């Protein structure tokens, strides 16, 4: 399965491309914003494509041609304003979904926020509410398509080394999770067809990732 990783140059994305390239069943195509970011992925043997989430749908669809799955793990980052949150986390996600449809890619994995419910938007601090709202509507848009989607809601992200163990379910208690483990969960999700049409929260835990994903 050839997987287009959107947001490949992010911290989760880099781990994910590495995991995919180590897999017997998966191969990665890394979508990057700048050509100078390509060397990291080329050293892993991954194909690269330069495109920006602020480009039009047709540009993103061209990058998606020939792949079997798309993972959206892009984000505007914590140091941008609500304008970039809307353009990347919401509009960029929706354009990628529409690009998948245009390119005939059925499998779509969305990396979302831990809680994107309407209640979470209302409860969020004013500085964080636009991000939660953007993720909420991107998730809702994906769920209304005919794509074979999975939505992953990770807990608070850390840069700790991965443990290979998590807790995953439709609802779990809030907690932390290393970005490396999130990437491993994504890779396992791609290989487990039983996750199609599901969404789940995931935090650090005591269950091996393969087993945790299988139990969703």
Cα-based radius of gyration, to the nearest Å? 16 Å
How far is it from the N-terminal to the C-terminal residue, by CA?
22 Å
Strand sequence of the main sheet, in spatial order? Answer: 3-2-1-4-5-6-10-8-11
The number of helical segments is: 8
Question: Into which percent range does the helicity of residues fall?
Answer: 40-55%
What is the succession of H and E elements? EHEHEHEHEHHEEEEHEEH
The parts where pLDDT drops under 50 for at least 5 residues are: none
Note the overall shape. Answer: globular
Approximate strand percentage: 15-25%
* Assigned CATH class: Alpha Beta
Q: From the helix content, strand content and strand pairing, which structural class follows?
A: alpha/beta
Q: Could you report the average pLDDT, rounded to the nearest whole number? A: 96
**CATH superfamily descriptor:** NAD(P)-binding Rossmann-like Domain
Number of strand elements: 11
Number of domains: 1
CATH architecture: 3-Layer(aba) Sandwich
CATH topology name, in short, is Rossmann fold
Largest beta-sheet details? 9 strands, mixed
């Amino acid at each position: 399965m050839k997987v287009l990783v959107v947001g490949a140059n992010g911290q989760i994305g880099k781990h994910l491309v590495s995991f995919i390239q180590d897999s017997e069943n998966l191969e990665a195509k890394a979508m990057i914003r700048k050509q100078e970011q390509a060397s990291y992925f080329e050293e892993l043997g991954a194909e690269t494509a330069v495109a920006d989430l602020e480009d039009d749908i047709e540009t993103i669809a061209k990058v998606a041609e020939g792949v079997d799955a798309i993972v959206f793990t892009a984000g505007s980052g914590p140091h941008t304003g609500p304008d970039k949150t809307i353009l990347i986390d919401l509009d960029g996600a929706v354009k990628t979904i529409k690009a998948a449809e245009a390119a005939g890619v059925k499998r779509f994995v969305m990396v979302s926020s831990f809680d994107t419910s309407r209640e979470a938007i209302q409860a969020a601090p004013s500085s964080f509410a636009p991000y939660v709202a953007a993720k909420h509507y991107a998730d809702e848009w994906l769920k209304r398509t005919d794509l074979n989607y999975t939505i992953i809601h990770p807990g608070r992200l850390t840069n700790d080394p991965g443990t290979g163990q998590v807790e995953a379910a439709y609802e779990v208690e809030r907690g932390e999770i290393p970005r490396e483990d999130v990437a491993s969960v994504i890779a396992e999700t791609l290989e487990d067809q039983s996750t199609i049409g599901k969404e789940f929260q995931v935090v650090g835990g005591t269950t091996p990732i393969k087993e945790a994903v299988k139990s969703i």
